[in-house]
Amino acid sequence: MSAMAMNYGVDPETGKVELLEDLPEGTKSIWDTVEFEENPNYKVAGALDRYNTKVPGVENLENDNNNWVSFQQKVHRVGSKVKGAVPKHDSFNSQTKLINRLFIHYRSWLPGLAFERFGNLRYDYVMENFDQGTWKSFWGNIGPDKAFNDFGQVVDAELSMHEYTKAALMDVATIAVDIATFGYGPRYKLKEGKARLEFEKFLKNQQDNPEFQFKTKAEKDRAFNKFVKMKQGNIRAHMTELRAVLGMIALMMVLGGDWDDDGKKDLHQHWAGRRLAGIVNRIYRETAVFADPREMTGPRASGIPLLSLAQNGVKWVDNSIDELGDAFFGEDSVRDRTPVGYYTWKFVPGLHGLVQIAEIYPQDKIVK
Q1: Phi-psi region of 187 (alpha: psi -120 to 50; beta: other; left: phi over 0)
Q2: How far apart are CA 277 and CA 280, in angstroms?
Q3: CA dihedral in degrees (20, 25, 28, 29; nearest 10)?
Q4: Per-residue confidence at 234, pLDDT binned at 50, 70, 90?
């Protein structure tokens, strides 16, 4: 919320909450207009806040002022993009059916983050701006730019596969350098010709929407500028995600290296090294959940609670039968090498994690 307050202000002419960069120069942000007042009832050991705050022009609900509600909605919307936590009043279709809720319960943040990456182009009436998935903006920008003269002319134009392949490979090379140099080398930039074409296609599909019936060229240009800023921001966001995923892969390769050629991973031979590698692996699983599909469906992916409970129950029964056979008949089944009680801890929330950290069983020394 603090970051949002620093980037939004109140339009001195309309009185509406708008992005600070779209307001006249010199307009203060919401953060800068907050007024603090000492709370006379404040006590060091009490439950009351030390200061009472007031935000002029935002918290005032008189004269149909909707700024505070509008600002709260914007904060919730951005929150769903950053951490995927979707408020109850802004749920996705996937959260309305019982079977879908069962399968996404263990990752309730998934719909919000998936939409942030793969969502189609639309106009977000909460943010009062254009919105599109970051991956769609990024990969849709690859290929030759298109000179925009006439909408019909561009739609009918065809590019040869050779030209497209050449431009795409040049883009991939630029992306690689941009990622490796953190933007200090040649930067991967938005192609405004392709953006203009996409913008015009969007307007063509909104012919019956009075929101996009621009009266002047200046109004249309302002809307296009907002569209371009959205696309540029999405490209930067996806570049940052790619840097994080590739950086984590490189780090995991270093942590899992065998630098003395003894056939064993050096870092995994010590408790601290195994814990560090496990933490890095966990961070990678959360970061690369879309970039690496194996982290969604593979053996390292977190299981659905009910299914995991059933699976652990079956394994616990098999282990118990195997251990009883070992005790009475001296057999040692090759199907189950886990010791007594290995699966019991998994039925106690949080305790299994502590057991793994303590490495009570040999299986816990395997970095997952």
Answers
A1: beta
A2: 5
A3: 10
A4: very high
